[in-house]
Amino acid sequence: MAAAARKGSSGSFHRVSSFELPKIQLEDEFSDIKFLAEGWYSKVLLARHTTSDSTVVLKCVHKETTKRKDFFREYHYNYYLSPHPNVLNSFEVAFDTPNYYVFTQEYASQGDLAHLLPKGGLGETKTKRVAEQLAFALEFVHTKDLVHRDVRLENVLVFDNELSRVKLGDFGLTQRVGALVKKVNVRVPWAPPEVCQAVYNEGYHCETSMDAWQLGILIFVCLTGSYPWYSADITDRHYNAWVSWHKRKTTKLPNRFKCFTPRLLRLMRRLLDPKPEKRAGVREVYKYVMDPWLVKGIDPMDLFFDESSSEIFMAATSKPHECAEKTRLREILSSYGIQTTVDKTETTRRICEWLLNSVTSPHRGM
What we know:
Elements: H1 26-29, E1 30-38, E2 42-49, E3 54-62, H2 68-81, E4 90-96, E5 100-105, H3 113-116, H4 124-143, E6 146-147, E7 156-158, E8 166-168, E9 175-176, E10 180-182, H5 193-196, E11 203-205, H6 208-224, H7 237-246, H8 262-271, H9 324-335, H10 344-360
Antiparallel strand pairs: 1-2, 2-3, 3-5, 4-5, 6-9, 7-8, 10-11
Helix pairs in contact: 4-6
């Protein structure tokens, strides 16, 4: 199997080159192939390379949904960012199959953070470990004039149970700072307000502040096990409550933030600033890792009951028993703003209304 030729150090970091990909059948080069995950544009397989007898991950990018140049951009950036200790290592091997463009990566033995997040969150100590390592990785990405754009649980790969070694992966959406991209397939709970407010299928510019926002959301999710809101849009009352408090229009702290200490709230103010130009960079995390983050005696899970209904806010991660297609469908519906949760108060009201009408209306056929 041929390997991609590595550029010399004098080459431009952003000069993404393409080359002739060797055409192979997976079964000819790999054995013990197992399915790990699938997303909108790719699927991930675990396999053993027959010649070297090493276990690797195969990132298989769908040809139907991905342009060849976009595949090379992801492979290029992932490969040249790999030397960082908190960036998933990409190997110097890429090839072509009838349906996929493929490149190889290292295997994270503990999987991704989405599957390890327990109900109620990771706790303070482990969350701090994750936050500090991701801030370190993103800071490196930003020094290369790049924006990751997809910081979320599924893209944090874990190598030990204590989360002392995690790595940022999936550079499929990575773009240069200032690049104009279209708004498509947005993962709503993770998206910053400037993306949520953009018109679907129209352009917006990539900025490092987007990664800072997603890092703030990830810290919140790791501490509580839930999202702070469904969408960073003023039509979402939970987000609207945050904006009102953030702008000091009210002194009432949003209920879902009441388990956070004043120091963590200060960090959240900086990372989750609705105005991207005022948002702090990812380095801000370093200032707060030695401070307490959670208020003692308050269980984060107790804060996620809606005051007007018995709805529990949408879980932060897909449950292990949910199939990939169901998860993918839910994400697509959410990206179009279609509600995927049920307001039980409204359901109860309709049932009562139906029962009342059934009792007061004349019975047919009598």
